[in-house]
Each structure stands twice: as structure tokens, then as C-alpha cells.
Amino acid sequence: xxxxxxxxxxxxxAILLVGTLGACSKFLxxxxxxxxxxxxxxxxxxxxxxxxxxxxxxxDVAGQGFGGIPWLAMNNFRSDDSEKxxxxxxGADWGVIYDQFQYVKDHWSNTTYWDQHYVLIGQANTxxxxxxxxxxxxxxxxxxxxxxxxxxxxxYFDLVRAFGEVPKIDFRVYSAVDAQRxxxxxxxxxxxxxxxxxxxxxxxxxxxxxxxGSSRFPGRLTKGAxxxxxxxxxxxxxxxxxxLTLCQNVISSGEYSLTANYDDIWKEAGENNSESIFEIxxxxxxxxxxxxxxxxxxxxxxxxxxxxxxxxxxxTPTQNLVDAFDANDPRLKSTVLYSGQADRYGKTxxxxxxxxxxxxNNKVYPEPSMQTFTANRQGGWINQRVIRYADxxxxxxxxxxxxxxxxxxxxxxxxxxxxxxxxxxxxxxxITFANQAQMxxxxxxxxxxxxxxxxxRFFDLVRWGQAITVLGGQGYQNKHRFYPxxxxxxxxxxxxxxxxxxx
Length: 503
Known about the structure:
Blueprint: H1 8-17, H2 37-40, H3 46-55, H4 63-66, H5 69-77, E1 82-85, H6 92-99, H7 108-133, H8 139-163, E2 166-167, E3 183-184, H9 186-203, H10 223-236, H11 240-252, E4 276-280, H12 295-298, E5 314-317, H13 319-324, H14 331-335, E6 336-338, E7 359-361, H15 368-374, E8 384-388, H16 389-402, H17 406-421, H18 436-450, H19 457-463, H20 467-471, H21 487-491
Antiparallel strand pairs: 1-5, 2-3, 4-8, 6-7
């Protein structure tokens, strides 16, 4: 794998130059569908905002930090659901660092994760400063402001979960010294996140549909995305009432629904479906033309040869995850692709050890028809599902239960289990409320299997206080809830940035 490290100096340069990025980008790096000039309703920040959508996917800008291997390591490898994967020799140090919790302060993965989150923050800050300088207050520009503030909140939420206290940079950076800031408290970071998401929810549209009911901009941010992310941030602080209210706002909007078939979510036709609240867009045209690919699926595809050279093979399911599914839960085979068995398209996967792992992430498996269409095997066109409606329902269930409304929690939980069972009798029976502890266990188990391999499990274990119990055998200690600040960031901070106290 080619190493694409964005060093601190590059981060600073990127922040300084972001005003030039994205100005000529197509929306989401894809052509707006069925949009006329009248449909566009452009605000004064369109170029900068489109650049944000492209940056979060583009590995050369910020995409490695939001869906590449550094993101997979931070969000997935550290859990009990997935491991580094690939071949044993490929990136062996990553397994030690993330699977065994032997964190390294100057490894390029955490440096890239840190830097690229601040790159996105820098682009958002630049857009907001331009809006202020031009005194843009029209409705379309307010939407642009809301998009910028969503992305800033999204990046800061990742950072505060991963590192704890981090520098708060909520202004445009013009020189390197401007970015030399000490850590802000976790409370200060969350206050910024709250303000950004409140503004985003107040100014983003419910949807981007045209008069015919089709989405003009698939994947563009909505009020529901801001409210869903806000709910997640409240859940992490155990603000149960606030989290429940935000989830119910999303639910009552009528904009989202669970897909009938869980497996359909992960197919090409399942992108931007009724369950999608926010997903990072990617695209490859016929014969590798018009490429706006993402590393997200490429990094995780089956590591084989010939027709089975589908990716780099990182982030593979564990036996622990396989064993966590109830017997006959249809979601298991939608989540885990088995070596030596048929895939969802009728092809037989080569057997282990001809390929180096028994299990692969079936949620990023490239369709054979798309491999033919694109003349590409490795799934660079696959969108990254970031927030699904199922997650909102499960957050509502958890918040309701912790607020003392177990009956409501059971109703939300049943929506997820009913969709999963698909009408099959004797599969995933309904769970009726008995007591808060029983319902808490049921909801946590459901989050694990419903959202498996989607980057939630490690942080769920930490916020539930279960990480030591579940991950202690892998070497986890309480200090591992936060990764140490990258040494390079400290070295370049002018003495203002100090290491996390336990490191």
C-alpha cells in the first residue's frame, strides 16, 4: 500500500490554501442528478462547500482520516468485532498497535487521522470566514453555512472521541502560528459541536427533492443528518432526554424508513436509499472514466488474486463477532462474507488459506456487474454509509430505556428486529420489556449486530464502561480510551500542545 501521510506542515498549508480547493468541483464530485440551473439555488459558498464534500472522500485531502485505513484502525480494529486483517505480514505493526493496544505516538496512521480532521475543519472555517467577510445572509448561503458547520462538528466529534481534549480552532488560519493552540476542554469542544449542529439543523432542508420527488443532490446534508449526529453526541454524554428528543425529531419527520431487506442496503442499488441519512459519495464510470473513487471499500475488499483481487483485505470480522449473532439471523451473511462459500451473487469465494482470511466485510463487497461496468474490481465506487436510520432508532431505544420508558424502548427495538427477521417465523423473536437492565443488554446486543463493521463498536464499549471487560484480554486499559496526541503535532505546536496525561 502506498503511504499517503499528510504531515503537520502539509496540514497547515492545506488550511492556508483551502480557499482554492473545490472551486471547480462538481457537487460531491458527481454531477447533480436531474438538476436545472433553477434547481441549483446557489449560495455564495457553493465552491467551498462542494470542496468539503469532495475532501471527506478524497484520500489526498482528508479521506484517509474519514474512511481510509487510519479511520478503520481508530474506529474498527480496536473493537472485538474486527481486526487488522489482510495477510499476516502486510502492515503487521498495525495489528500490534490497534488490535493489541500498543499505541505508538508517532505512527503515521494517527498523525494522518489527526491532520486530516483538522484539514476538514480548516476548510469549513475558511468557508465560514468568507461568508462573514461577504456578509452572505441569503437563504442559500445560510444552507452553505449550515453544511460547513455540520462538517466542522462531524470532525470535532471524531477528534474528541479519539483523543479527548484537542485544540479548538474555529477561525480561519492565515499563518502557521495561528494554528498553534493549546488543548481545549472536552466541554468546550462539545459546546462548539452543539452550536454548530443546532445551526445546521435550523438551516438545512428536510430533503433535496425536486417537484417530481427525486433527489437533486444524492448524499447532500439535510436537517435529519444534523439532528442524528447531534443525537449521537448527546448519547455519548448520557444526556438521554436530549438524545431521545433529537431522534424522535428525525423519526417524526417522515423522511426516512427502514429498507425492507437488510441485505439490499449493501448493494449498488441500495446507495442513498430511504434509510440513508448521511453517506460519503463515490463513483467510477464505465471503463474507469470519470473517477471519484473512495479508499473505503478498496481498503477492505477480499485480498485474493486474479478475479478475486478485490482490495487490500484490511478490517476483517472476528470469530467473536460471528458468534455474537443469534442463530439464523439473516444479517450475519449480509455482514460476513465467508471464504469457501457462495456470495450474495452466486459466486463461490476461494477457500482459506488460499486467501488469507476466513471472514471478510460483506458490507463493502463489490458487485460483479459493477466490476464489469467499471473495468475495476476493487470497489472504489462504493459509498460509505455513515449514519443510517437504523442507528437513529437504536439510539432512540437506548435513550428511552435510560430515561425510564422501557415500553417505548422495546417498541423501537422491535422495529429493528422485525426488519431483520424479514417475516421468517421463529427468527429473532420480539423482546418484551421486563426491566431496564434486561432491555439495556438487548439494545446493546442489537447495536452490535445491526451496525457491525460500521465503526461504532469500540466507542460504544467505551461509553458503556464495558471496554475493560470486553477488550482487556487484548491489552486494553482505561488509558486506551483515548489515543495519545501525535508527537508530530506536539513538536510543531510551539510548546502549546501537551500530551494526554496518561501518556
